[in-house]
Amino acid sequence: MEAEKALRSHGLAVTAQRLAVLRAVADTPHATADQVAEIARKQIGAISKQAVYDALRILAEKGLVRRVQPAGSPALYEDRTGDNHHHLICRTCGKTVDVDCAIGDTPCLSAADDMGFLIDEAEVIYWGTCPDCRQKT
Ligand SMILES: [Zn+2]
Ligand SMILES: [Zn+2]
Ligand SMILES: [Zn+2]
Q1: What family is this (predicted)?
Q2: Mind listing the pLDDT tens digit for each residue in 40-97?
Q3: Residue 20's pLDDT band (boundaries 50, 70, 90)?
Q4: Of the ligands numbered here, which is closest to the C-alpha atom of 100?
Q5: Which of these, 36, 57, 122, 127, is most buried using a 10 Å CB contact count?
Q6: 106 CA from centroid of ligand 3 (Å)
Q7: Number of Cβ atoms within 10 Å of the Cβ of 130
Q8: Is there a binding annotation on residue 90?
Q9: Is residue 101 a known part of a binding site?
Q10: CATH classification number, 2-76, choose in 3.40.50.2000, 3.30.830.10, 1.10.10.10, 1.10.1200.120
Q11: Do 18 and 12 touch, CB atoms closer than 8 A?
C-alpha cells in the first residue's frame, strides 16, 4: 500500500486517520483542509476536524504533503512535493492548476543574490482568469 509505505519511510506511525488524509490529498490535489476532512470522512467515517488538521500538519512537516497558502484564501494541500512547482489560480472561480518552473528544474530556487540564505522554497502564484471564466465575460 503506497500511502502506508510513505508514512513508514518518513518515520510516522500508520494510523487510519493519517492514511485517509494522505489518500484524500493524493486523490484531490489543492484541496482545502475542509475538503480533505469531507473526503476522509467518506473513507473512514468519523474523523474530527482537529484530527485532520493535526494529520495535515505532521504530513507537511515530514514533506509528504505541500501546503500552498494563497493570499486571502484557505491553505491548499497536495502530494506533489519537492519540485517547487508553481500555481495558476483563477481570481473568479478559484480553479487552481500546477505549472512547472519557467525554465529547467526549480530555477526559482536560484535567487539573483541569495544573501547567504539556504533557499528551499520559492512561492510563486500566478493570479488571473481561467479559460472558462474568460468565456463568460
Ligand atoms: Zn475561473
Ligand atoms: Zn500544485
Ligand atoms: Zn519557478
Answers
A1: Belongs to the Fur family.
A2: 999 999 899 999 999 999 999 999 999 999 998 899 999 999 888 999 999 999 999 9
A3: very high
A4: 3
A5: 36
A6: 6
A7: 17
A8: yes
A9: no
A10: 1.10.10.10
A11: yes
